[in-house]
Specification:
- The chain is an alpha/beta fold.
- Among the domains are: 150 residues, HAD superfamily/HAD-like (Rossmann fold, 3-Layer(aba) Sandwich), CATH 3.40.50; 149 residues, no CATH class; 93 residues.
- 37% of the residues lie in helices and 13% in strands.
- The protein is built from 21 helices and 27 strands.
- The chain has an 11-stranded mixed beta sheet, with helices on both faces. The protein has a 5-stranded antiparallel beta sheet with strand order 12-11-10-9-13. A 3-stranded antiparallel beta sheet has the order 2-3-4.
- Strand 15, helix 11 and strand 16 form a beta-alpha-beta unit.
- Helix 5 crosses helix 7, helix 7 packs antiparallel against helix 8 and helix 16 packs antiparallel against helix 17.
Length: 720
């Protein structure tokens, strides 16, 4: 890119602008202390004579910002319509309230009843078989589900998760009302543009090897192995290891070089270690798929360093120094632009096209949301990639730039979320730039900051949703510093979900083995304790008169448990092999716990999904509700409920039936109202017998079948 300022390259203070140097000293941005009142002020940037780059590559006129605002207003007005029941319109900012889940109602549709219906709120209802409003309370859930799906079938809309494809679902960690979101920002690489990981990272790996070869590093014979690492692992630069930790920071699996460590070796190295990712001098978290080539190269070279193959410089080099060499080699690959120049020439070799992406962004834009593109890539690369991936799937006459209210290239994240950096406007298709004081809607810029974006668009805090693939630079900083809502794109999620499904029989068998050991272990521990009390004379239990027999029993139970361990150990190592044979599942660490990656996702991403086009099924008006979070003490309560409360209800029902049979019909009817029958359907349609118990009263009761573990919503957490 070049700067246009009287024909010379200059910085923001008139000093010569040098490539690769920040134009202006950054100013630290403090995290937001709270969400201020939302500003609706218009952009005050004065239009330039030269203008900016429009969607078609021509200079943009001064009215671009006003036109965009008018379009947004028109989209709101389109949703106002009259019915026989009343007027329907969108809830505006000054009318918005906070709902019972803590979300703003702004953007929701609201019905203003006509005067004749306002008091009783009773009208003619003819939808989904209902005749009056109260019918919804008694309408069986299965019947409603079938009725709603019949409408969706007419609209050619696929079933949603969990009945639809779970690989294309959007998962919610924190409740999010998409209707109240005013602006959606997107990262580009691995978010709006998805690459063939093997092709992109394999080529980056080759460029990195060539750089190291020129430095005398022994790289001959090395080959890119994408299965060697997965996202979410952590490089230990002190020991030359790659580790997988759980949500507490405890190491569960480890690899030195390309050799997996056993449990004893892990215990000796990390037994007292709690991994703290803030110690960046030692730990490197693999946040994104861009980290794959770096980690593969580093681990392979650790092997060669251990073999004494390095003859670089004077003396031995450390694992820390080796990482520095690898990191710089890969950094040069990106900075020098060789790889991206190659991709521009043949994008079809590297980019995986998704025709649904364009319609997804069109729907969001037409719903009145402002769209932004914020990427660290330069303008030439961004333009070529977005044109290749989006232009063929847009309506005739549209280009990718027409989708966005603002585009920011070379944003230099994470600094974009940490500092107020100088801003430059891109004014020509070949990348000519000039410094500007502020951003305007419709503009194309380089640099700047998140604070500038908020000011230009008249939004802030939870008005914005930012979507990216990098946990730290896309999600964590946007949330911590600006309270933006966040969405994380994890493409491997599709493989993870399929692997979890394929591994379900193995996991169930492993849980059964663990449960057998727990049952036997409970008896063993009780016998051991009783023997201890008898030996110390604290009990006169007659069953311990045969000490030799008790000792023999304990020994045999030990043999059984050790035999179980022989099966459990290898089974634990194979758990998750359908995703990765070395590291197991992306989201799990060990049998029952979450991985550090999954903890980061839950902490910083309000929602997460495998690709942006998954929003297409959910519409721009979706309300994402986080599921109930399982706690250690709320597992297996179904059985407790059955033993404690259902039994009492059955006894009450039996007593009522007996009273009725004895002539106390009126009393029996009163006593039996709303209770479960011992073996048949009661008046409210609920059923309870020895094999199935109705958890909730009423015609929509949920039946738990002990023979069908999927009928228990706590099944995944029911691990003894």
């Amino acid at each position: 890119m070049r700067l246009a300022l009287d024909g010379r390259r200059q910085g923001c203070h008139g000093a010569p602008f040098k490539a690769g140097r920040r134009p202006c000293a950054p100013v630290r941005v403090a995290p937001s202390s709270g969400i201020k009142s939302r500003s609706s002020a218009a952009c005050r940037c004065a239009p330039s004579a030269a203008g900016g780059i429009s969607g078609a590559g021509e200079p943009a006129g001064p009215a671009d910002g006003a036109a965009a605002a008018a379009l947004a207003d028109a989209n709101v007005l389109e949703e106002a319509f009259a019915t026989s029941t009343g007027l329907v319109d969108a809830v505006q900012q000054d009318e918005a309230e906070i709902d019972f889940l803590g979300e703003s109602t702004e953007g929701n549709l609201h019905l203003h009843l006509v005067d004749s219906l306002r008091k009783g709120k009773v009208g003619v209802i003819n939808v989904f078989g209902m005749q009056q409003l109260d019918d919804i309370y008694d309408l069986p859930l299965a019947k409603l589900k079938a009725a709603t799906q019949s409408v969706l079938d007419v609209l050619d809309v696929p079933e949603s998760f969990p009945d639809g494809n779970p690989q294309r679902a959007i998962y919610c960690s924190r409740t999010l009302n998409l209707r109240s979101i005013k602006a959606i920002g997107y990262d580009m690489d691995y978010t709006l543009i998805h690459y063939d990981v093997n092709a992109w990272e394999g080529r980056a790996y080759e460029y990195g090897l060539e750089t190291l070869r020129q430095q005398g590093v022994p790289v001959d014979g090395l080959r890119f192995d994408p299965d060697l690492v997965i996202r979410g692992l952590i490089m230990d630069k002190e020991f030359g290891n790659l580790i997988k930790v759980d949500r507490f920071g405890l190491v569960k699996r480890a690899m030195h070089g390309t050799r997996m460590l056993n449990w004893q070796e892990i215990r000796e190295l990390y037994g007292r270690e709690v991994v703290n990712l803030r110690n960046e001098g030692r730990w490197v978290f693999l946040n994104t798929l861009f980290s794959v080539s770096e980690a593969v190269m580093y681990m392979q070279l650790v092997d060669r360093l251990d073999l004494g193959m390095f003859q670089v410089g004077a003396g031995n080099i450390s694992y820390q120094a080796l990482y520095g060499m690898v990191s710089k080699a890969l950094y040069r690959t990106h900075v020098e632009g060789k790889l991206k120049a190659e991709i521009i020439q043949a994008p079809e070799r590297y980019v995986e096209l998704d025709p649904e992406m364009a319609q997804t962004l069109l729907d969001q834009r037409d719903s009145g949301k402002q769209l932004l593109l914020i990427t660290n890539s330069d303008y030439e690369y961004t333009n070529k990639m977005m044109s290749f991936a989006y232009d063929p799937f847009l309506p005739s006459g549209m280009r990718w730039r027409d989708l966005f209210d603002m585009v920011i290239v070379m944003a230099r994240k994470p600094d974009f979320f940490n500092y107020n950096m100088s801003l430059y406007e891109v004014v020509t298709p070949d990348g000519l730039m000039r410094p500007v004081l502020g951003a305007c809607k419709g503009g194309l810029y380089c640099g700047g900051s998140a604070r500038m974006v908020e000011k230009a668009l008249g939004v802030e805090g939870d008005d914005l949703l930012y979507v990216g693939d990098h946990i730290y630079t896309d999600a964590a900083l946007a949330k911590i510093n600006f309270r933006w809502r966040t969405a994380l794109v994890i493409r491997e999620l599709e493989l993870e979900i399929d692997a979890l499904a394929r591994g379900r029989p193995h996991r169930d068998a492993l849980k059964e083995l663990m449960m057998k050991k727990e049952l036997i272990g409970d008896v063993f521990n009780q016998l051991r304790l009783s023997r201890q009390r008898w030996v110390h004379g604290h009990t006169a239990n007659a069953s311990f008169e045969d000490e030799e027999g008790i000792n023999e029993t304990l020994a045999q139970l030990l043999m059984v448990m050790e035999h179980l361990d022989d099966r459990i150990g290898p089974a634990l190592e194979r758990d998750g092999e359908h995703f990765n044979k070395r590291w197991g599942y992306l989201s799990r660490a060990g049998l029952n716990d979450k991985s550090q990656l999954n903890r980061q996702i839950e902490k910083y991403a309000d929602i997460y999904t495998s690709r942006v086009s998954n929003f297409l099924r959910y519409t721009p008006y979706s309300y994402f509700r986080s599921p109930s979070q399982s706690l250690a003490h709320d597992r297996n309560l179904t059985r407790y409920y059955e033993r404690t409360y259902v039994k009492k209800q059955q006894q009450a029902a039996a007593a009522a039936a007996a009273a009725a049979a004895a002539g106390g019909g009126a009393a029996g009817a009163a006593a039996g109202n709303g209770t479960h029958s011992g073996s048949s359907s009661s008046s409210n349609g609920s059923i309870s017998n020895g094999f199935s118990v109705s958890i909730n009263m009423g015609p929509n009761a949920y039946n738990y079948d002990p023979n069908d573990p999927d009928s228990d919503p706590e099944h995944e957490q029911d691990v003894v």
